[in-house]
Amino acid sequence: MANNGQLQLPKTLIPLIFVGFFVVLFISKSTVTIDAGEAGVLWKRFDGGVVTDEVPLGEGFHIVAPWNEVIVYEVRQQELFEKMKVLSSNGLEIQIDASAWYEPVYNELGHLHQSIGQNYLQRVIQPAIRSAARSVIGRYTPDDLYSTKRDAIQIEIYEETKKILDKQYVQLNEVLVRDVTLPPTIKEAIESKLKQEQSSLEYEFKLVTAAKEAEKVRIEAQGKADANRILSASLTDKILQDKGIEATLELSNSPNSKVIVIGSGKNGMPIILGNQ
């Protein structure tokens, strides 16, 4: 009913509105939805705080007491990109660009949240990879960093970083050294040295090739000389006469006109006269 132009609600409806409001508030505080690639850590206000002895809440819809709280973590693999200035073994400043692939240990999310918190990237991962990079690079010279040792350096940085993070409930999957930047003067000196070494190797290769070719020619010549010497030693007068007779018999069967004088040649060999 209206009174002086104002709408009056029934007295029984007002309590229902309040009850409905608190029911909606209770439901909104008691439900949580965890998206794909995430997990939730449960914090109980009246029962010991962070739950560390249970599996984290997985993806999907969950109902919790309104006085408790769920802290959501991304559990996918994530990437950290770092530009670091470090010193080589001889004290030169080197800049390296590196990436780290990491993810929180799923079943240890409660311990991670309790001991480090959601900003574990800044608290443990970045300091760990920087410390490992300084330690590893400090054992190498700029020549090592510029040439063949880069893969070994990358592996060492990964192993040293992993030792630290394994104790911090973080799983390190990979460390990639993407680039190493040396001071310009050092880079030019190294490149010049590498060119000289390459030229020296090419010259040595040519010398070795020439020596092998000369040895091959010498061996071939020696072989021919030995063959001729053996052949000469085996050709007696009797063998030469027999070869001459064989040749004469073959020529006598030829259709070309000829005159054969038997026994008129040197050593009794026949003389062949005639036209082709």
UniProtKB/TrEMBL annotation:
Where does the chain cross the membrane? 12-28
> Is Ribonucleoprotein one of the keywords?
no
Instruction: Please name one Pfam family that this protein belongs to.
Output: Band_7
The domain of life for this entry's organism is Bacteria
GO CC, sorted alphabetically, is:
membrane
Keyword vocabulary terms for this entry: Membrane, Transmembrane, Transmembrane helix
User: Per its UniProt record, what InterPro entries does this chain match?
Assistant: Band_7, Band_7/SPFH_dom_sf, Prohibitin
Cell compartments where the protein resides? Membrane
Residue ranges occupied by any Band domain in the UniProt entry:
29-194
Under CDD domains, the record lists: SPFH_prohibitin
Per the record, membrane topology reads: Single-pass membrane protein
What protein am I looking at?
Answer: SPFH domain, Band 7 family protein
